[in-house]
Amino acid sequence: MDGPRRGYWCECWTQDLTEEERPTLRASLDAYSASQADRWVAVTLRTISPALDSDASDVAWAWLSQGRIATRQALLRSEPCSVTITHAQTRITWTIRPVLFLPLAHRQGVELPACTNDFKPHTPD
């Protein structure tokens, strides 16, 4: 990559609603197209849907059948999106934000600067 490249930063957060704790980042993905970003959420929802309670499953399948289209359209307009389901006492939220990915220096055989160990995940809004 020679210069900045448009894409999407995707995250999956969970929060135990019985505890007064902050959400926990569970996964993240750098996507380079709107379809790749919403596909990540779709594949995850399809994978976990058999284990969800009926209300959460209904929300998941509603997004898969109709909400996904609105999400894709919003992403193509460079708008951030989120999908949230609540299963039992756990809230699961997927966020997708448009970003510019900056090129990095080649990292093979090079010691990274100490600041690379200081990364702290972004908390959801």
Strand order across the biggest sheet? 2-1-4-3
Structural class computed from helices and strand pairing: alpha+beta
How far is it from the N-terminal to the C-terminal residue, by CA?
30 Å
Strand content: 25-35%
Can you give the mean pLDDT? 89
Poorly predicted parts: none
Shape: globular
Give the helix level as a range of percent.
Answer: 25-40%
Secondary structure elements and their pairing?
Elements: E1 5-16, E2 24-31, H1 34-48, H2 54-76, E3 81-87, E4 90-101
Antiparallel strand pairs: 1-2, 1-4, 3-4
Helix pairs in contact: 1-2
Written overview of the protein:
The chain is an alpha+beta fold. It is 30% helix and 31% strand. β3 and β4 form a beta hairpin. α1 (34-48) runs antiparallel to α2 (54-76). The longest helix has 23 residues, at 54-76. The two termini are 30 Å apart.
